[in-house]
Each structure stands twice: as C-alpha cells, then as structure tokens.
Specification:
It is a single chain. This protein is mostly helical and 185 residues long. It is built from nine helices and no strands. Helix 5 runs parallel beside helix 9. About 4% of the residues have low confidence.
C-alpha cells in the first residue's frame, strides 16, 4: 500500500491505517529502536508508542515522507527510553558510543535550552548536513540518526571501518567549528 493511501486511512480515522503502517514500516522502525536500545522488548514497546503517536498526530499533520516521520518518532521514543534506563550508568552499546562521539561537538551549558534555541540549533545542523557531500552526509545520518554501527556503515557503503571513523571524526570537527562560529558552543 502506498504512503498516500496509508495517510488517507489515518485522516479517515480507520484503524487499518495502523495495521498497514505496521506491515510496511514495522521492521524498519524496529531496527531504528533496536540499534539504540539493543533490547527486543523495549524496542517493541517503542513501536507501540510510535503507532499511537502516529495515530494522534495524523491528522492534523500530513507527513511528506511517512517513513522519515515514523523514524523520527521511533528514534525519539527509543532515546527517551535509553536515557531513562541509563541515567546513572551507561551500558555497552551503539547509543552510548554515538552519544559520546557527538558530545564532543555539542558540549556546553547543561541548562535546559529554550525551545527557540533548540529549533535554531536543529536548523543549523540540518543545513550543515545538507551542505556535506552525499557520501559524508549519508554516513553522518546513518551513524547519528539511525545509530548504525561502524561495521554496518562500512558494509553499506563498501568502505573500511577505519575510513568510516575518519569520515565521522572529520565531519564532527567541521560541525563543532560551525557550531562554535554560530555561537552554540
């Protein structure tokens, strides 16, 4: 079923919309959650939360790309679950590594930032990623949005794991410089 038809089912408030969404994007969203949580039960719970959030959000939202809309919801639930389970002690897993890697770019004040500043920062990061070469941008997104492992990224793009690490390090350094220049750090 096409995304437009699924979205139309949401707008018609037909529960089959959730079933069709689950069929089409269940494994995709599960992989995102499981990359972050590395726990089947928690990942399945995130999926349930994702379907509910999609039901509550569509309408009024009409996502341009349903897969990315669902990925963002799933990712946010998974990160929140990860944080709540690892508040005092970080476990071994990709998410801990991903957060550690990005921390060097965005460390700063620990105060809760205003929504406005957070939106500006998000916009700045989005512009930064769009300005990268296609390969660098894809590698950056696979690592820091989807929380893919270095090995998975290496296999996906047919480059060595060391090359992936170097690309990510250089990209993080560029991001850090840009955020410093814009006054976020």
């Amino acid at each position: 079923m096409t995304d437009d038809k699924i979205i139309q089912l949401f707008f018609q408030r037909k529960e089959v919309a959730i079933e069709e969404t689950q069929k089409k994007y269940g494994s995709y969203c599960f992989k995102i959650a499981n990359n972050i949580l590395n726990n089947r039960e928690d990942s399945e719970e995130c999926l349930n939360d994702t379907w509910l959030k999609a039901w509550e959000s569509i309408p009024p939202t009409r996502p341009a790309y349903l897969n990315l809309f669902l990925a963002k919801i799933t990712r946010n639930f998974a990160i929140n679950t990860y944080r709540s389970k690892h508040t005092h002690k970080r476990g071994k897993g990709e998410m801990a590594l991903v957060l550690d890697e990005l921390e060097e770019c965005i460390t700063g004040e620990t105060d809760v930032e205003t929504l406005y500043i957070a939106e500006e920062l998000q916009s700045s990061i989005n512009k930064f990623v769009r300005g990268l070469s296609e390969k660098d941008g894809n590698v950056f997104i696979r690592r820091y949005f989807y929380a893919d492992s270095i090995k998975d990224i290496s296999n996906r793009y047919y480059i060595s794991e060391n090359n992936v690490r170097v690309m990510l390090s250089r990209t993080r350094n560029k991001l850090k410089l840009r955020l410093e220049k814009e006054g976020y750090i």
